[in-house]
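Lab manual, section 2.4: Encoding a predicted structure.

Procedure: take the sequence of the chain (200 residues), apply the prediction step described in section 2.3, and record the output as structure tokens. A sample record is shown.
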Amino acid sequence: MPIQIQTPLTSDAIQSLRVGDTVEITGPIYAARDAAHKRMLEALSRGESIPIDLKGGNLIYYVGPTPPRPGAVIGAAGPTTSMRMDAFCAGLIPHGLKATMGKGGRGPELRDLMRRHGAIYFLAVGGSGALLSQHIKQAEVIAYEDLGTEAIRLLTVENFPAIVCNDVEGRDLLEEGKAKWARKPVPAGAAKAPLRNGGG
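Recorded output:
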């Protein structure tokens, strides 16, 4: 059964999650991508405030939703590839960011930074934007409206499905999976298994 978690995330919740845990997220999360992150980092470098309270246990979801159909809350809201966000994320984690969500793995430098700062990363299911949008009950642009789909949005989600990819212990679900299923080299001189059905 998925673990039910509420946002903003408490320190206890973050500490309790482990690699491979399936979760369902309920509560407010923030949608932001490349352009919005760039603006936030620029603002922080000038000593200015930004639209997201990084120290408040808030989760940033890497998504640029499509325009909603008439009567819909939001359009398709599938995750963006997360590794392209690593450089931006590295600038936000020291300011208190503890939780992010997207598609695919993170680079080794960011994984180490997350471990040192006790941050976690969730995987959302890629290619399922229409399905995921059904778990978004409200969506409101709160900053950088001129960026269109890349504006920062406050989303209210309900039972939003995700998997813990990186936990506070520094473990990585995808890297562990690669190691587990990697082919072991055949020792030199070992006999090869015979082909079945006559080969071919």
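Check your result against the sample. The radius of gyration is 20 Å.
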